[in-house]
User: Fold this.
Amino acid sequence: MIHVEGLTKYYGEHAAIRDLSFNIEKGEVIGFLGLNGAGKSTTLKVLGGAQPHEIRKRIGFLPDVPPLYDEMTVGGYLDFVARLRGVPAASARSHVIEAEKKTSLEAMDEQPISSLSHGYRQRVGVAQALVHKPKLLILDEPTGGLDPVQIVEMRNLIRQLKGEHTVLVSSHILSEISQVCDRLLVIQGGEIVAQGTEDELAKKLGGGGAVELDVRGSAQAALDALQKVEGVTGGQLLRLEGELASLRVDASPELRPALVKALVAANIDVLRVDKAHGRLENIFMKLTGGKAS
Amino acid sequence: MSTVLLIARRELAAYMRTMSGYVIIAVMLFVDGLCFNAFAMAGTAKKSSEVLGDFFFYSSGFTMLCALFLSMRLLAEERQTGTLQLLYSSPVRDWQIVAGKYLSALGFLAIFLFCTLYMPLLVMAYGKVSFGHLLAGYFGLLLVGSLSLAVGTFGSALTRSQVIAAVLTGVMLLVLTVCWLLARVTDRPLTEAITGLAWYIHFKPFEQGLVHLRHVAYFVLVTWACLFAATRVLEARRWR
Assistant:
């Protein structure tokens, strides 16, 4: 559906993005990841704003700052945007109602945009991007500045949009969008440094993931028992408090049952088994050259 | 065309819904009225047509000022608040953005001109004024306003700050106002060209109730040139 090849953009001498190439299939939800200043917004701006005239009808774009006219009402604004993007005047209203329903803005129809909170403004921003039912939705940091509840709502919203639209969504926080994305593109210094699903990215970086365990008994015995399980590439002791030990094992989370069995066989009590926290962040940090947490 | 009207309608509604437009009109009307009272009406034994001519003289200046203040926000504000991205990402041509914005400001300026009507009506009530004179004068004012708004639209396209837009526009209008002074110190072929650029020379006949096609052409041409320039600026900035 989208084929980007050799996209480069200079701001003066400085190249914000360099020779960027990627493909997006129809109906996919793509996560665009990178730290601030990596070139995400620049890329999306080019994709969203600098298209030939005929293509723009089929694109819905939410820039990093929602482009809202403060003095308009939510309904009036969405109506304006719908007609600006080629929806006939007669059916504009029904488009607006549908967009408001999708973004839970029905109650705000008559409200002036200037009176809305940040979360609602962001929602109006998403609503304007999808009011004309575009094939491609480009959302630049839709979760920026939202509180945790609103982030979950935004995620659910993006999940709903899947199927109906092809979605390109950017964020600098991996965990916020990785759950809704089919594929991730990681951008760093204006170049794509990795792409693929979350698991593919993890594999590519050597680590098949990690598992954390709390056990009671000898920590050394537990580690020894775990190391013998096939697929485990390493392990370490994180904390030791009396009888309780926290361990971290480098192994795919799918190995969790085997790990528990091995511990039970070694007569060690298992108190907790979990996917290692911060796994996503670690992948991301490694890719973007930041310091792992 | 419908896109142009859509943008113009939204923009006009924005003028109506915010205070700034009304404030600009109110202040300009007040000062225009003061000048009318102090200068046009002053003195004894004036003909009504002279009073009306003076009225058009003062009003042309205030129309210009009013246009400057009305136009400074047109594109600069869009750039400032990021709403220009909305227009850029929509299937709208750059000239449609410029035309829509410009027309809305022209519409709002027409409200200002309409509100000044009470002054010539007063002259009419107490003296004898030809209807043609009135019509020609107002046509001239509209042309001055249209030129100033176009210059303002261009100034507003150049920057994201409304203040800088107003200053740029002010300087450009000032140049168009005083360039006949420059013409006096230049040599022959240049003299005519530079004199011809000054807007007041083209407005003066309207004051007296005369409409010449060549003067109308001047205003239309400068208006068109400025709007064209504004369009090119928008086009160039799309990629930034």
